[in-house]
Amino acid sequence: MPVDYTTLYVRSYNCDRILNNPKLDFSLNYNENGVVLDNKRIAEHHFCKILVYDNGTVFFKGSLHKMYNSIMGIKPPNYNSNSVYKGFNGNEFTVENVLFVISYLELLFGTSRFNFVIKKIEIGLNVQVFFNPLFVVRNLLEIGGTPFDFKYNRHFAICEKSDYFLKVYDKSSQYNLEESRLRVELKTRKMRVFESANIKTLGDLTHNNLSEALNILLKHWNKVLLYDFTINEAMLTAREKNALNSKYQHIKYWQSLSANNKDKPRKRYQKIVDNYSENIKEQIAKKIQSTKISHFN
């Protein structure tokens, strides 16, 4: 299942039932003088947060994947009881698992899955690769003129667009997984990114809608400019090698070009990739495209 972090607005609920639920420990934030600092109560539950505002508005924020693993007692291979633990979302997360979490939330809040309105969502895949995922992460350049930013010693890359974030990072090193896993993930700023998938509530997380959401993820991955680390420079002409080393692999070069002047050099670069590399970006695209709903993770 490609769903991870969500922000949900809850409608049609019994506020007193939520506040008095013995499974939820709500707290207020006070200053040193005993004055309440904000207008909401917060309960942390299985690495997620439930926020109840004074006006009765209720939000849920957190990873459905981490929630499932926490409920089931599943921990990562590198779990250390002496370290701060922030949950685990590096294993398989099936359709049955996500439906279990949705049913759990229905019981916890006492309302239908169609009353959990999705305000933000992350749709992504843990793609199994047969090379070091960092070779991809650290060679990401841009999407439509917007460069990738890098965090956590360049183990994590993010491109921030007006409606979404595209995040790419090494999932295997995050949790010390045996298999090499590259996480490719689309996080919404505005839900219109997934408008064609008809995902508005938790009840809309169906096979068909999620398949369309995966197509949207693929569309945005295909917009990525990636320097292919498998290019065989020995096969290049002197002119191609010079262009590769002095221009194509450098974000400053692409950023120096106006949108109208990028088409020709990008085509020249793509010709090199098509003819003299293993075309890593296309390999990842094919894995996203071939992923079936039963294999979502």
List keywords for this structure.
single chain; 297 residues; alpha+beta; nine-stranded antiparallel beta sheet; three-stranded antiparallel beta sheet; 10 helices; 12 strands
What's the helix-strand series? EHEEEHHEHEEEEEHEHEHHHH
Radius of gyration: 22 Å
- Discrete helix count: 10
Q: How confident overall, as mean pLDDT?
A: 93
The first-to-last residue Cα distance is 5 Å
Inertia-based shape: elongated
Enumerate the spans where pLDDT stays under 50 for 5 or more consecutive residues: none
Please identify the structural class as seen in this structure: alpha+beta
Helicity range: 25-40%
Give a count of the beta strands, DSSP E runs of length 2 or more: 12
Strand fraction equals 15-25%
Q: Biggest β-sheet: count, sense, barrel?
A: 9 strands, antiparallel
Strand order of the largest sheet: 2-3-4-1-5-11-10-9-8
